[in-house]
Amino acid sequence: MKRSILSLSIALLLAAATPAQDIVTAEQYFAGVSERYAQITDYEARISIRTQRTTMLGTVWYKAPRLLRIDFTQPADQVICFNGENLVVYVPEYRAVLSQSVSTSGSGGAGLATADGLRTLRRNYTVAYEQTPNPVPLEEGSPELVVKLLLNRRTVAEGFRTIVLSVNPDTRMIRRISGITVSNETFVFDFSGIRTNQGIPETRFVYDSPASANVYNNFLFKTEN
User: 40-61: per-residue pLDDT in tens?
Assistant: First the structure.
């Protein structure tokens, strides 16, 4: 009996001397990612946008709080530019400039990798770890490890039913955004070579369309007077 009591006492002392490991919930981890992006004044990165039908490649620039531009190399010379009030898409194949006045960024998945985008996700989606809080391969066979967060929409108004954020555990920067739409189409946004706080000038987000291009205003929806 004395030996049992002694063993129990030693076990309790060891437990008291060992610091408890904090369990970081998915919500807390997501909040940490949001805080990281809130500290970013601007960033530049290579971007890849993939669907079942096509792959687009280019460079993305972001400047807080709402400026975003993507210059594509595939398809060549295509541009998406958002200056905080107006979204412009240049499609060189049709020599067309599509312009839309919007109240929020219409830059799609790329716009989610910003402080504003993450705040929107936090309001409109529930957050959980996809499988585990531990880093896992970005994809099968990949040596790159990420933390994967699974987001499920709270209302049917959201365009993506589910979103998976793959986060670099060292930098807390988003490496990949995978979204499944209501029509079960998958979009994958990859960010690589990310450079933050480069002092990107606001002039980078001023797009001068080619003189030969046809301009189509309010191509998404009509604005109210």
Answer: 999 999 999 999 999 999 999 9
Q: Which pairing describes strands 214-217 and 96-101: parallel, antiparallel, or unpaired?
A: parallel
Q: What percent of the chain has pLDDT over 70?
A: 84
Query: How does strand 55-63 pair with strand 96-101?
Result: unpaired
Q: What angle do CA 41, 117, 170 make, to 5 degrees?
A: 65
State how far the Cα of 210 lies from the Cα of 120, in Å rounded to an integer.
Answer: 34
Domain 23-217 has CATH 3.20.20.300: no
| Domain ranges for the chain | 23-217
Span between the terminal Cα atoms of the chain, in Å: 86
Q: How high is the pLDDT of residue 138? A: 98
3-state secondary structure of 220: coil
Which tokens belong to 137? 């391969």
pTM: 0.83
